[in-house]
Amino acid sequence: MSGRTRDHFGSIKTAGQTIAGKEETAARCIQPEPIIVPETPDHIKKYRKSYKQQHGVSILHPGLVDAPKPVGNYVYGKKTDPSDKTSDIFKPQNEGIKELVLEINEQKYASRQKEPLGIVPSRNYNWPNETQSDGFAFGQKIPPSEYTAKEVVFPPDAKREEEKNRLQYLKSHGNFEAGEQKNRNYNWNIDKDEYRFGKKEERDQNQMRKVLQQENTDDAYPKTVVIKKNQEDWKNYNEDPLGKPKNLAQMNERMPEVFGVQRRDEQWTAGQCISGQPTAKEVQPDQDLGRATKFGFRNNPKQGDETRTFGVPTIRNDVLKKGMKSVADPQNYGDEIPAVELLFPQKFSHMGLSQEDFLRIRPKREIKEIFESIGIKYGIGKFEGVFKRAKEIQNTYDDKVSVKAYQLAVMEMHEID
Question: 131, 185, 250, 414: which one has the fewest Cβ atoms less than 10 Å from its Cβ?
């Protein structure tokens, strides 16, 4: 017996080796002493990858690390001789005799003779006498057209081409209408709109039910299987029953269903524990909500500028539009289509009509021709009454109304005889 340890088998030789001292303790095994790794020699460091990954150090080529450096402020490279300055090239320096000599030397070049600087080049063409008159211009003058660009793109009196011509272009060029279904004129013996191609496969019903309940058939009940009680008890103990607490081997029926004592004086609910019980002052918005509190970012207008709009609008309605706008003019004069009409085009935009066409003031004769062309024809008396109502809607005293105003008047008085 040695200390607290008693050897009951003293005749058997002890296995292993016992080391006396404090070197092999449990703490030393868990937290061993750090291993001191020898450093890389200085003449080898320049070849290691760690040398190239240093921060804040100029990385040199390994061959230049130990190379001797020149003494003093040594500058590498070759010095470039000064050249002519830009101002000396563009500004002529020749004066007097030098300038005359330079002019004589330049006369021998063909480009100087045919295309002198500042003068139209002469090709020695033999033009007729008519070209020498003032105001002469080449080409043929085109008289101004009576149609606008809008009427050229969307002709108001355009007629649809005949069906035989359309079918001819359809056969030769494949010119299908928008949304038209391709028809190859096959001679079907069936109704292609109702018939479904392919072979129908007869599938068995209730396949998943038969997979899960293989013993079930259409004309039989599930078979009763007799198993051992200890197997069923193990199943009830190991698995979690649906809607019931798990069985933890508590077989005493006298145990209560609910453990613990319910406290009636507790006022805090689970919702109050999550959201707390703040006061009316604590739920108020912060004082800096919607305001700039950082110095230098406050947009405080001066006195008199409270209703002033700062900046320049993108659509410049205040800029006077020119008579004919150039294609290179990027200015928006307020007559261009906004982004909302590009995303949501107007109802009749596909016909070349805009909202301004319905709101433009037109004379009485033009209004009558427009509505008679769409089938709305009235007698003289009723037309005057409807036109008078349109003037009231338009709030005008002239015999000019818009198509929109006359349309509203037609909707009110169409059924009146």
Answer: 185
